[in-house]
From TrEMBL:
This is Uncharacterized protein. Residues 1-30 form the signal peptide. Keywords: Signal. It comes from the Bacteria. The keyword Signal applies.
C-alpha cells in the first residue's frame, strides 16, 4: 500500500520557486517566440550587439526587420522554420559557417573601426530591432 503524500511534490515546489523568482526579478523565462528573437540572442552581448547594430543601421539609413531576415536567410540558407527547429548549438554552428564564408567572399562591413562579416553585422542589427 502506498501512503498518500501530504503537501506539495518536489516538482510543484520547484515550479512555485521558479514562478516566484520570475516575479521578483520581473523576468519570465520563456522560449523565444520568433525566429528573429532566436537569431538575435546569438548576436553576442546584448549591449555590444546593440551598439554595433545601431551603427550598422545608421550607416545604411535604417532597415526593416523583414529585409534583414531575408538577407540573413539568404546568406545562411536557413528558413524561419529551420531557425526554430535547430538546437541552439546547431544554429550557432550554422551561423559560424556563414560568418567564415562571408570573410572568404569578402562580404565584410566596417562598423566603428571593426571589420565584421556581413552576417554578423546583420545579426547585431536584428538584435536592435527585436
Amino acid at each position: 500500500m502506498t501512503a498518500k503524500r501530504k503537501g506539495p511534490t518536489r516538482r510543484a515546489a520547484l515550479g512555485w520557486l521558479a514562478a516566484g523568482a520570475s516575479l521578483l526579478t520581473g523576468r519570465v523565462a520563456a522560449a523565444p517566440a520568433s525566429p528573429e528573437r532566436r537569431l538575435a540572442r546569438l548576436a553576442g552581448s546584448r549591449r555590444a550587439a546593440g551598439r554595433i547594430g545601431r551603427a550598422y543601421l545608421a550607416d545604411r539609413g535604417g532597415a526593416d526587420l523583414s529585409a534583414l531576415m531575408a538577407e540573413i536567410e539568404a546568406r545562411t540558407a536557413l528558413s524561419s522554420d529551420a531557425v526554430m527547429r535547430l538546437s541552439p548549438d546547431a544554429l550557432a554552428a550554422r551561423l559560424a559557417v556563414a560568418k567564415r564564408e562571408d570573410f572568404e567572399r569578402r562580404d565584410t562591413v566596417a562598423v566603428e573601426g571593426w571589420v565584421l562579416s556581413g552576417t554578423e553585422a546583420r545579426l547585431c542589427a536584428l538584435a536592435t530591432l527585436v
